[in-house]
Design a protein that fits this description.
It catalyses: a uridine in RNA = a pseudouridine in RNA. The protein is of the alpha+beta class and 296 residues long. It folds into three domains: 68 residues, RNA-binding S4 domain (Structural Genomics Hypothetical 15.5 Kd Protein In mrcA-pckA Intergenic Region, Chain A, Roll); 83 residues, Pseudouridine synthase; 99 residues, 2-Layer Sandwich (Pseudouridine synthase), CATH 3.30.2350. 17% of the residues lie in helices and 30% in strands. It contains five helices and 16 strands. Strands 5, 6, 7, 8, 9, 10, 13, 14, 15 and 16 form a ten-stranded mixed sheet that branches. Strands 1-2-4-3 form a four-stranded antiparallel sheet, with no helix packed on it. The two termini are 38 Å apart.
Length: 296
Amino acid sequence: MKTMRKGSLFQLVLPSNWKNVTIEHILKEEWQAPKKLIHSMRMNKDIKVNGDYFPWDKPLTPGDTLEMELFKKTDYDVPPAYGDLQVLYEDDHLIAVNKPAGMDTHPNGPQDTETLANLIAFHFQAKGESCRVMHIHRLDRDTSGAVIFAKHPLAKAILDRLLIERQVKRTYLALVHGRLKQKKGTISEPIGRDRHHNTRKRVSPSGQKAVTHYKVLEFRENMTLVEVVLDTGRTHQIRVHMSHVGHPLAGDTLYGGKPVFKRQALHAARITFPHPLTGERIVCEAECVDDIGLNS
């Protein structure tokens, strides 16, 4: 699929397999954009074909150039702040970065100005880009690894949907206490609030569905290095589930781990997903930069 950016416009040349499609079909069926966003684009006349306004219900022809006003200048929504930022992937629609441990993904209030979102705002500012910083998912403060941010509302809406549909695949590395008896397994236990602790979660029959898959990579004395893939994205899910089966994460004192590291030994090492607009498969590998025993 041939695409390019021209100022505030996203240009897409209709591929040969998009025959008799309409603008409405592309937005509703191909990209499954939300109704509110589609309505806004229609009212604002954000879409042209070959440089002219075109009926949304009239069939297009392969080779036509669809022009969409996607890159409107907006504020960052968070104050830019300088800091080291490791970019894993970036284009006009999204950016994936390697979040360091000890940093929040985004501000929780106006007093928070040193989060990952603030660093990304500075990165955009340095590049001369004016777009909102929109996270697609989060990592705990003391978990490091790959995080995706969208650059415009259409990309965010599609990536949000892909996340819900489990098309965004996140692979973690974790070092847990003890030696797991099975080389691979699945933990399917609902997770809810711990009524006795403000920040802790727990396995609870009344909690939300949570499914964690793990695979043993290596045994290390009285610890096990595991690869973890999630079907769901509950808060503290890996930490809760591994603790529940008797193998808390090393360094995770909140869930029974020993303080052998300054933080829990958990890192989002890989993230794969289809590009929100082109469908191209994107693979991002994030290196664990601090020594918490996750590098083999």
